[in-house]
């Protein structure tokens, strides 16, 4: 157990620690697929039994890192085109993406539940360009905190699976309505995974995954465009690279319908 901050989080908020731990595990490797020294630093500052609670699975850590890298590429591409744009991270938890891809000019807004926002504020204090707004991602108040003048990308990494399908559609529709021309990047678990989590059948060592009401297979990506008429682009973002057997299997997994996916939406 590390010394320092002692978080006490509820079931879904605790997933912020799970993803942080696995990114840090991967980042510690000399052959890592995701350079994330800030994640390693944070784990060292948090008083929590990470390994006892979440295990030490190299596969899970690499897959989490590859997912994060998909979002990193989308954000980096957005900032290349909109260097002073705003990146809104809904349900960001203790994600350290800003330390991986920030260009020194962009603005970042973290939106998360008050208990997670308070923890993030203590561990990663906000500044003029990095702000934290404590509220649910489904609460439209956060939208008033965004200046869309220089472009907007909305990232929902590791969030939507914990919402109900109706909430997912409503969130996409609200963002499309409020931020014309913006990008919206999401990830989804397949339906079988969602069902197992909701039935309480996803357990690893001492960790029980929370229910995941929203699941989506690859052939359903196009349905996201029906959330609002302004959703004019739907594009899957495939993981790249990988190490060992994962690198070999990624092209094969990409052919499966029931697979995890990262999807980028474009609003007119």
Automatic annotation (TrEMBL):
Stored Pfam families: LCM
GO terms of biological process kind: methylation
Gene Ontology molecular function terms on file: methyltransferase activity
Keywords (A to Z) from UniProt: Methyltransferase, Transferase
SUPFAM superfamilies membership: S-adenosyl-L-methionine-dependent methyltransferases
Matches recorded under InterPro entries: Ppm1/Ppm2/Tcmp, SAM-dependent_MTases_sf, TcmP-like
Superkingdom of the organism of origin: Bacteria
Annotated PANTHER family: S-ADENOSYL-L-METHIONINE-DEPENDENT METHYLTRANSFERASE YKTD-RELATED (PTHR43619), S-ADENOSYL-L-METHIONINE-DEPENDENT METHYLTRANSFERASES SUPERFAMILY PROTEIN (PTHR43619:SF2)
Name of protein: Class I SAM-dependent methyltransferase
Taxonomic lineage of the native organism: Bacteria, Bacillati, Actinomycetota, Actinomycetes, Kitasatosporales
